[in-house]
Fold each of these.
Amino acid sequence: MTDKEPGVKESMVCDCYKCELKDLFYRNITDIALDSICERKFETIFRKGESIISEGDEILHFSYLKSGLAKIFRLSQNKEQIIAITRPMDFIGILGILTSKTYNYSVMALEDSVTCNMDIELVRNICQTNNNFTFSLFEKVSHIYDKIVIEGIKIRQKHLRGRVSYILLMFANEIYFSNKFELPLTRKEIAEFIGMTTENVIRVFSEFRKDGLIRISGKTIEILDKNRMDNISNFG
Amino acid sequence: MTDKEPGVKESMVCDCYKCELKDLFYRNITDIALDSICERKFETIFRKGESIISEGDEILHFSYLKSGLAKIFRLSQNKEQIIAITRPMDFIGILGILTSKTYNYSVMALEDSVTCNMDIELVRNICQTNNNFTFSLFEKVSHIYDKIVIEGIKIRQKHLRGRVSYILLMFANEIYFSNKFELPLTRKEIAEFIGMTTENVIRVFSEFRKDGLIRISGKTIEILDKNRMDNISNFG
DNA sequence: CGCGGCTTTGATGTTCATCAAGTAAAGTGG
DNA sequence: CCACTTTACTTGATGAACATCAAAGCCGCG
């Protein structure tokens, strides 16, 4: 997060002692260490569409998403490839936050978002002296990676209809906790996530609509027949 | 590694103080801790084709591949999906070695192989008390994961010819360090690695042979025109 | 209001999986 | 060690799944 980034610093920050990440931090860190992080942390606001991280940027902060939604992606062969959707309380930049000098991925806000940023050197110092902390972090990062790898395998084994229903169910079940939601991704981005073309994403949407599986109104999607969607996701 | 596994314990084990993993262990661990691991470690021999780990097995040891070659794979929808090829000095089981109770992946020997196995509880104890060690391990595991994710993305963006040349170059450049080598995978396994059918792997092999790119004799492959192979791998 | 990006649909062609059928190689039991 | 079985390899023919191309409507934004 360098100066030229569009993110805006926010003055209303929350109390670290009440942070939802306390499982990771509060439990494993002394009050003194926590205080030293807290007084230097800051929050940043990103509007929908703004870049949070660009591949190659120097890593200066240990950041997590406080609210909103973001996509993690890589540029490969002039094509964006979306690797994962980052939800609140997820770390930003995942890999190499501690071990690399620069980011390996780009991150962009899909909705208005707020990140909380801590000095990376301070966090590295805590790692040097507090292995409970390091271990917890290790555990969390491992699970994130594992999910990415396994999800990638599962998605690619499916046909187009299966991929689309998989991602729609993901939004409904894991992100918005509702059968009706606003798609945070364009059709093109969905295509970049699940490895198909924009046109075919739209075509499958239309098929699902004609089959009475979903209702579409612009970016608003409502899943009407979850059972059949589950079947298509699992066996399509 | 339970009793029913085919691996055979080996009595001739090497000196931990001269272990190639000393960067990870020796540098970060006291002699006493190292000694306590060493006297309880053991090595296991696996013949080509034998199972080293099965998905769901309880994790009892922290193991690495001392010699040989192995494939890491998952069973998904009755299909094997090869995730990575493990080379000497790579860890076995990667994810969750420290944090999970059971393995998330299966591992099978592709060549006669030897693993070195340490008591997982002992290693976990070291993690509890030695954060240099934990940090080094964290770093190594992160890089392994990163490579898997990026490699997966790259392979799937290519057409069939590009995928096949990519994997052949991988064997030549990163595993056997020679343009002529014995393929450790069957055609079917190659297909499972790069997401295509067995028939098409064979078809592309035949095309490459007719185009004078490679010479094939059973499992022996020789890359004749590396420049053109590089091009196909990068732009195919 | 007009421009560019997003969305939609149809027509067309290519890539690739599937099916079939046969050969070679490798393991198995008498 | 040889007949037998199984697994791996190979090639061709066919069709399905999917990408690409083309054209037009829509929507937000300067």
Amino acid sequence: MVLDRHPFLQRLSQHVELAANDIAKLESIIEREISVRRKHELVVAGSEYRKLCFVKDGNAVRYQMLRNGKRHILDVILPGDVIGVPNSFYERAAYPVIAVNSLTISVCRLDDYLELCYQRPQFAFALCWLALQEATTHAERVIGHSRRTPVEQLSHFILEVHARLRSVGLAKEETFALPFSQEIIADLLGLSTPHLNRVMQQLKSQELVAGGDGQLKILDRETLKSIAHYDPPELLPIPLAKAGLPSKQVAIL
Amino acid sequence: MVLDRHPFLQRLSQHVELAANDIAKLESIIEREISVRRKHELVVAGSEYRKLCFVKDGNAVRYQMLRNGKRHILDVILPGDVIGVPNSFYERAAYPVIAVNSLTISVCRLDDYLELCYQRPQFAFALCWLALQEATTHAERVIGHSRRTPVEQLSHFILEVHARLRSVGLAKEETFALPFSQEIIADLLGLSTPHLNRVMQQLKSQELVAGGDGQLKILDRETLKSIAHYDPPELLPIPLAKAGLPSKQVAIL
DNA sequence: CGCCCCGTTGAAATGAGTCAAGCCTTGTGG
DNA sequence: CCACAAGGCTTGACTCATTTCAACGGGGCG
């Protein structure tokens, strides 16, 4: 099975109950599974991009270059995320995506997915829910940048990544692999690398987190949460079709 | 007609062609049209909120309070926007919404809308597209906060609001009513009011914009665009159902 | 072995926040 | 009809967090 235990399905299943033939339908439009090497650009800015890539393993970042040579990272991409939201929905891709380590993705054509949505609206909802999560992640990031202190931001980032990894079974209770360099985190949080480094040391010296070498351990989750204002909102489950509909219509759901 | 020339429909029609009976369907789930007075909270943080409100006229802001007493504004809400995205999709509303001047909205129940989506998937797509726009707006805001200078940010904000107002026919070529106080704009952009004020003056002294008294005129759009890195990505049109589907299915699209 | 990437540290410059005060306009109530 | 209050805008001075620039150490990889 192409999608067996795929982290994307793990993530979806938290919001909606998928029937076996839903999964089969989704599988049928997966074109192929490919690997991408570190530092390879999956999505080139300004190109037409019309794929959805369900990340099976590995990490990437979505970013934007600014005139002054600065890079800003919009989002880190973890297993279970979808590359192509939102890029594939624009005439031309707005935000390039680059792999930060070797990446395995399952690829389908956007058109095929959208057609599937007409056949089974729950896939349209899945897309909505992804977009809503995306919007919320960004919203939290916005708040972080403008109204949280660097310590608060970093705390928030750590908790967020941990939660996202946990939700696809890639993090232990309090320990996880943080696959991003300080430069990447700095570019994500809008800090300079030296400053991020100092902030990181601060968290460690206060014994809130420990780690190094790509591993991070959360020592004092409660304090960290309160520092970060971390209180992630929970999405409703995706609604199911009303039972009372005429059978003809139920059939195509 | 309840929704006749409703700015929300104007906005939607840029992405999808709506048949008369689609509009009728949407109208049928509108519960009522209500007015909200300035400074009134439409959505209370932490409450369960299960409505979608299509803004017909007036303005609001979605914000969040932080522990330290600071307010951060996530987004300004203009006619044509939908209040309840994303709040209504969470167990409890995450971001309160408050009217900044008198507001007229058309309200429907979220459940009714979602059910409509199962009947006519293009409404699910409409929701996706809204969420994607939301995500993109926030993404640009994120970039603004962390990697744009205040001048760049303000320029971007001016161009963004102008474009959003134009798309619902509420702005002239280069002039529009800016219904937000400097305090609100500062809280949105993550600046202090005094600083925003100085930045505003800078833009005026460079003869990029002019105005006052709630009116703003863009004098030099090109320079402003280049300062702001303003290059908004364009969403694809919402796909229509494949022609080849059985007629029963086409009928319900 | 040497290169490159990543993390770390230091010192100096500056942009933006904070606090505080004053002005102008608008709206309101006496 | 006037006076006062409130909200929004403007200005100035001071402070300090963060950036910038520069340099160094270690470790992994070719």
